[in-house]
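Hello,

Following up on my earlier ticket. Below are the two sequence lines again, exactly as submitted.
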Amino acid sequence: MTQRHITHPFGKKHRLHEQVIETILFLCALFSILITVGIAVILVRESFLFFSDQKVTLVGFLTGKTWQPMIDLFGFLPLLNATIITSVIAMVFAIPLGLFVAIYLAEYATDKVRGRLKPILEVLAGIPTIVYGYFALTFMTPLLRSIFGQGTVEIYNTASAGLVIGILVLPMIATMAEDAISAVPQELRLAGLALGGTRIETTFRVVLPAALSGLSATFLLALSRAIGETMIVALAAGAGPNMTFNPFEAAETITGYIVRISGGDVSYNSVDYNSIFALGLVLFIITFTLNLISRKVSSLFYQEYE
Amino acid sequence: MQTESMFGTRAESLLLLQKRSRVSMIWKVIFIFATAVAVLFLLLLLISVIDSVFGYIVVRNEVEVSALVSGASSLDELSRSQLEEAAKNNLSSGILRRVESEKPLAERTDRELRSLIEQYIIKPSVLKSWGLWGSITKQDEIGAFMADQADSYLIFKSWITPEFLINDQSANPLNAGIRTAMLGSLWIIAITFLLAFPIGVGSAIYLEEYADDTKLNRLLQLNIFNLSAVPSIIYGLLGLAVFVRALEGVTSGAIFSSVADTTANGRTILSGGLTLGLLVLPIIIINTQEALKGVPDSLRMSSYGVGATKWQTIWSHVLPASFDRILTGTILALSRALGETAPLVVIGASTFISVDPASIFSKFTTLPIQIYQWSARPQGSYRNIAAAAIIVLLVLLLVLNSGAIYLRDKLSKKKRMAA
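Thanks for your patience. The regenerated structure is below:
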């Protein structure tokens, strides 16, 4: 060892194992690309099988208002409709509430209060979604039924599922929005206050507009989460596609359908089996697009201040 | 004196100022109210679960204990010989033969005999159950219900019992337990960890320590963020097509000629664990990256300064310095896997399993799947055991998370001592 150092005092020693380790680590990192490719290939391939079935047409799939595999009707609008209803209810409920919590945490709460509240939000965020599903079924639905009447609210309904999805994404919105608001430079706040604005005026007219891109990214990500949420709708929204705009009626969402069909014994290569992949593809495209936009929007924000 | 300004008279300005501060006040109240509502939901969630775990139930026995042994009112009073006698005399010959071939009556413990008699002879069934709140406030209703019922009795039951933890599944909620589901969950988590931890930490090390700012590396990073936001049910579809179907030979154990269950068809623990491994991989990568970012560059530089190579620096300095946070991040990711339901339902976890999983090629059920199955049933008392299972799941998660925090504190204290 010492001998070699003397012969090559400053030369960089070639070490094979360093190269090998770097290659292995690189392959680990490539593995995640493989997952994305795997998801894309499988969804597209099985969807292709679904659409090449003579009973299915792309136009019928995209515009049909009935999803009844039994009688060869494959219109995905009722499933999409239910997904949109639950997600919209969730967002209408969770965005204002989550934003208010975030403003309170970022602008008003003392460090001590914030230190107490943030773990509570983390606990809420860490509870498995199946528990929220149970909550929707045993608490929210009876609550809605006692408020609006047993006759108007069905046992399974999209309103209950949507509200509970709202509770589910609430902590996510609150913590991410708080990060976005806290990232607004203090100078902007001070400038707003120095011009004579009250605290709330500064918050609404200076801080929130400045945090807008971070906030929109948060809301988009929450929407994507709500659309992909499965167990709550599987338990509380109802089993059976239903083209309705009434949130008190039962209606099955895209995710609910996938879980119900795959939970039973489906035979491979049947239309039923392939249909869950086609719906999975729709779901993947929607959520993937939302996630991409969300990241684009939030990177705009960082360009503004850094 | 100049009292007029562009905002009107002094009095008007004051009025405006008062109005503005009032608005400010109102909004502050709204913010606090919103926060209180968020906390309230957590409380409601926990209360609604706890409410279902305790409460009065009305039970009807098919055969009374007094009919088995005259004068006795509960099985606990019976002696060993009386228990054996009662079992022998009252079990139908078919069941008796099956039970004897599994394990002779004489060799069974008193407890096993009691549960045997309860299951096959007494056959208690829950007629109606009340939650904790209902048990306290609806005494009249319970009384009225009991007045109409003959041959049934009212007991206050806690649905979480030691038996609930160690019993296997049963069609009767009173005898059902979650042993197989808990074992299934543990097996799955083990596989998930074995797949996701090495690859996840490896990826994170590459991205943080090696990767230059090239197009490929930026794509890798973007891809990981996107994967972490893909709905979990999509991973279920991936697992169904890849592990259950395409790799059925591997996941059912056929190519290792160790098929544990011929009816599993690839819907095995291995498939489930690998699917969840893919699901938590991006989370582990992101958490580990955060941990590595927390290591100060001066540590790396001083290591290079004394002549260490890149890998020596990473292995002996960067990883030990960030190990506590990597561990915490991994445990958080695994607790996500522990509560995950949808992907496992999609790849076809079994719903009713009464044998413990024997190997990674066994069929399985997990705790969240049990909760899903029980919640979905319309009968009231299944809700009660679903709630009991939820409590067990939440306690497991709590233990896991506080274990992570404890380990982190302990490790970082050690680090400080060493430093």
